[in-house]
Design brief:
This protein is mostly helical. It contains 6 helices and 2 strands, in the order E-H-H-E-H-H-H-H. Helix 4 packs antiparallel against helix 5.
Length: 132
């Protein structure tokens, strides 16, 4: 199994060293193995888990819910139904965010078109009317 230094994990996941330490301290990340010199060494499983954490964080899942999800994962397969429920609820929230952003994007696109139309009309005016 591969081992990764904290710097490599920062590079791979985009999390800062402080964030990795914080996630370990609060229990979102299981305690990281250390080498003989006491330096953290991350496993493939750690990096994979951090990928999931990144996805959840980037989609707006609160830390408390991420901690609940981590707890369920660690408790074993008998919690799969609970994990599904938690992720489905989060998915509904993400869908609502997407719908809201889509509406707002539509308003932005309409404003862009309005300004393009203004420019087009302005360009069609005779030179003497454009100067005023």
């Amino acid at each position: 199994m591969a081992e990764y230094t904290p710097g490599q994990v920062v590079e791979e996941t985009g999390f800062s060293l402080d964030t990795l330490r914080y996630y370990e301290r609060i229990g979102l990340l299981e305690p990281i193995d250390r080498n003989a010199a006491g330096q953290r060494r991350f496993s493939d499983d750690d990096v994979s888990w951090l990928g999931m954490v990144r996805c959840l964080r980037d989609t707006g899942m609160p830390i408390a819910e991420m901690l609940r999800f981590a707890q369920l994962v660690r408790q074993g397969e008998h919690t799969i139904a609970d994990r599904i429920a938690l992720l489905e609820e989060h998915d509904r929230k993400v869908e609502a965010q997407i719908a809201d952003l889509s509406q707002k994007q539509g308003a932005i696109q309409r404003k862009i078109q309005y300004y393009k139309d203004v420019l087009t009309m302005h360009d069609m005016l005779p030179d003497r009317e454009r100067a005023s």
